[in-house]
Amino acid sequence: MHTKGSSCCCSFEDYKLTTEWLLNQTRHRPKVAVICGSGLGLLAEGATNKQTFRYQDIPNFPVSTGE
Ligand SMILES: *[C@@H]1O[C@H](CO)[C@@H](O)[C@H](O)[C@H]1NC(C)=O
């Protein structure tokens, strides 16, 4: 497996681990996900039932400098 934090990864197996980890952390089962850049973070303000994760906690997830 690639080292955590490498900017370029991921095999299908890596993604499966990421998915499994996320599903383990939450009871939410979303059908759609939106990744917002730093300019679109306001979209999240309007969300109800929200749950947040730190990028560095998510396995195989590239860590961004933006929020
Ligand atoms: C998800 O939870 C199951 C059951 O607790 C555990 O066996 C598995 O290792 C967890 N997977 C991850 C990726 O955390």
TrEMBL record:
Signal peptide: none annotated. This is Purine-nucleoside phosphorylase. It comes from the Eukaryota. Keywords: Glycosyltransferase, Transferase.
